Amino acid sequence: MQTKNNPKTIQAWAMFDWANSAYNLVITSTIFPAYYTAITKTEANGDKVTFLGHKFVNTALADYVLAAAYMIVVLLLPILTSIADYRGNKKSYMQLFTWIGGLACCGLYFFKLDTLEFGMLCFALAAIGYCSGAVFYNSYLPQIATLDKQDAVSAKGFTYGYVGSVLLQIICFIFVLRPEWFGISDGSFPARLSFLLVGIWWLGFAQIPFYKLPKGVPNNASQRQNVIAGGFKELGHVWHQIQAMPVLKRYLSAFFFYSMGVQTIMLVATGFAAKELKLPAESLIAIILIIQLVAIGGAALMSKLSSIYGNVRVLIGVVMIWIGVCITAYFIQTAVQFYLLAVVVGLVMGGIQSLSRSTYSKFLPQNITDTASYFSFYDVTEKLAIVIGLFTFGFVESLTHSMRNSALVLTVFFIAGLLLLFLLLSTQKRQAETVAVSAQ
Questions:
Q1: pLDDT: is 83 or 239 the higher one?
Q2: What secondary structure, in 3-state letters, does 391-429 show?
Q3: In this structure, is residue 13 part of a structural domain?
Q4: I need a surface site. Which of 36, 210, 250, 410 has the fewest CB within 10 A?
């Protein structure tokens, strides 16, 4: 039996965040969005591109492709995670999706305007690899840490991710901004090299957790039945159990709504600054670096605050700040204003991601072995929220020709999540009172 709170195991687990967060920073947040916007905007067609015979606004197309990738994750992961728990091989799935994501990032090295379809395919596969691998990674949290340590361990994972991604971003930053130092004359080469480096970084550092983490514990291993059937059976079992957990069920509802806003903002922030404020690539990369660095402190701060005020109350405060972020984005006009907003985003971004994961882990029964199946609900909830959030953002932009309007619409999702968090507090209180009465 794997001992919980083992420092070496926790450090190895956190290194997976170090490895794959480079994708999240370089591909979804900085260099890829800037590169994609630059190569798909032409004098002849403006910001319109032709994809599979149809015309799209370039940034809206990227939103739709990401939404489609996340939808595939939503449909695929409940089956895979149930099978992983059934067979006890969730680490094998972590490895599979890491290779898919890492190789897809390497494939983006060949992405130019005349290979738009191929580039978008790699873009989608990288997202699928990242999101799917993260599900199995997250499911290790209750397996490697006791209940009282999960906030801190979750924060440590995000901290490793932020630090590792920033280090690679700085390396890529040098190539993008100073190509002449290396005798590079092809304007597209530094960005494409960055995509290749992300793939190598991701695949290379992921070998550390793959070496150290336990494989997983088989569930219902004695049953001799088709693995797919066993997977669906286990999935149904988990779903039935969640229905009987009012606190967990209410939390997932709140998480679903506020994730529509959080994840969408993180994915479109660079495109927003480029299109609405006309900020150059140098400024965009600097802004995202600020967000990542501040997020390190944000994750640690929220972990401390949760030990004082409780996870749900801290989440309520953070969601309120996110509502202010969306409203501010609608009115923002200058680069300085965007820099200040980026600091706020970084603070609440690190906090809400880390705290959301550990809060869910705390609400789970602590004696379960099928953690991957339980975390599939968490991750599928998040990815489905992203699908709706990205589609809404892209649709509103296509309809109104303004990303500001899209940002304002996101406040609706945050408000819904906020109301559900308040209801969650009431649910927790009622449950605590019931337990107290039963104990008498």
A1: 239
A2: HHHHHHHHHHCCHHHHHHHHHHHHHHHHHHHHHHHHHHH
A3: yes
A4: 210
